[in-house]
Specification:
Blueprint (H helix, E strand, L loop, with lengths): L12 H22 L7 H20 L7 H27 L3 E3 L7 H4 E3 L2 H4 L1
Antiparallel strand pairs: 1-2
């Protein structure tokens, strides 16, 4: 084997154990947070906890902390694309009107599903 051969970094066991403990703690925090009503912040709190878990897994379990800059940039770019997807999805959901289904006896397709105006919602 030549001296120029690349060697794969082996993550020390202590990092795996610490990461596992932190992930278990974050899982308990996730369950506790799911039982608390943060109002409009529910999704943001859930995403922050999930991103923290993803950061730990990527950096320590996957070894990105010790990997090349290209792999780190590729991973961060993927997270940014995913965040953009979630942002547009949440914006779409927050700007839609409510949908009300009419009574079962009414078979008129025009009245089957209609958006509720703001004056009807209050």
């Amino acid at each position: 084997m030549s001296d120029n051969a690349s060697h794969h970094f082996v993550v020390p066991l202590k990092y795996y154990v610490r990461t596992l403990v932190l992930l278990l703690i974050l899982t308990v925090i996730t369950v506790a947070a799911s039982r608390v009503n943060f109002g409009s912040w529910n999704t943001i709190v859930a995403m922050l906890i999930a991103l923290t878990k993803a950061f730990l897994v990527a950096n320590y379990f996957m070894g990105l902390k010790w990997d090349s800059g290209f792999n780190k940039a590729f991973f961060v770019g993927g997270l940014m694309a995913l965040s953009l997807f979630f942002m547009f999805t949440l914006l779409d959901l927050k700007t839609r009107g409510d949908v009300v289904v009419e009574e079962k006896g009414n078979h008129n397709l025009k009245n089957l599903v209609k958006p509720v105006t703001h004056s009807q919602a209050h």
